[in-house]
C-alpha cells in the first residue's frame, strides 16, 4: 500500500471513530435523559399514591358511637328536656367523649321516637368507661325523674368507618338508613368514598356501621349535619359534576342495598 493510500485509510478510520463516538455519546445522553424522565414519572406516581393513602387515612379515622333513642310523651317535653340537661351538665365526661342531646323533628310516620342522646368518641375504651361510670345514687335518681316521661327506649351502637369535615359538626343532623348484606359493605363503602371525592358537603358526613341494636335491618347509616334549616332544605348536588357523582352512587348502591328511612334531629345541647 502506497503512502497516499495509508493516509486515506487512516483518515477514514478516524472519521468512522468520530461517528461511532458521537453515536455512543448520543445514546448515553438519551439513556441518561430517559432514566431521569422515568425517575421523575416514578416519583410523581409515588407522590400520587402517598397522597391517596394519606387522604384515605384521613377519611378512614374511626369514631365510636352509642345512641339512646327515646319516645317521650309529648305532654311535657320541656320538663323532660330540662331534667336531662340538668343531669348531664354535672357529668364528668372523659376528655375524648362528647354527648349531643337532640329532638327528632323530621321523620316518617312509623318513626315513634322523639329524642336522642348520642355519645361519640374516637376511643371505644373511653366510651365504655363513660357508660360504666353512669351508676350510683345520682344516676338512679336521674332515672327515677325521667322514667315517667318515657314511653319507649332503645339503644344502638357502632362505629363510623368514614368521616369527612370532622370539625363541622353542626346542630342539625340527618340520618339515612340502609340494609346492606355484609358481603356488599365494602362495595357500598367504595361507592360512598367516590361520591365524597366530588360532593362538597355542607357539614360533617360519616358512614357508620351499626354493630349493636340493629332496628328494621338497618346496618349501615350515612349521617350528615347542616348549619341551619336552609342548608338542610337545599341539600343535594349543586352542579353537573355532583349530580353525576350522585347518579353513579345510586346506580351502584341501588343494586346491593335497600334504603329504609331518613330522619332529622335538632340539637338541644351538647356536653364536653
Detailed description of the structure:
The chain has 272 residues and is α+β, with helices and mostly antiparallel strands. It folds into two domains: 59 residues; 210 residues, Alpha-Beta Plaits (2-Layer Sandwich). 45% of the residues lie in helices and 29% in strands. It contains seven helices and eight strands, in the order αβαββααββαββααβ. The chain has an eight-stranded antiparallel β-barrel. A hairpin with a 7-residue loop joins strand 6 and strand 7. Helix 2 runs antiparallel to helix 4 and helix 5 runs antiparallel to helix 7.
What is the structural class? alpha+beta
- Stretches with pLDDT under 50, minimum 5 residues: 2-14, 16-60
| Number of separate structural domains | 2
CATH T-level topology of the largest domain:
Alpha-Beta Plaits
Shape: globular
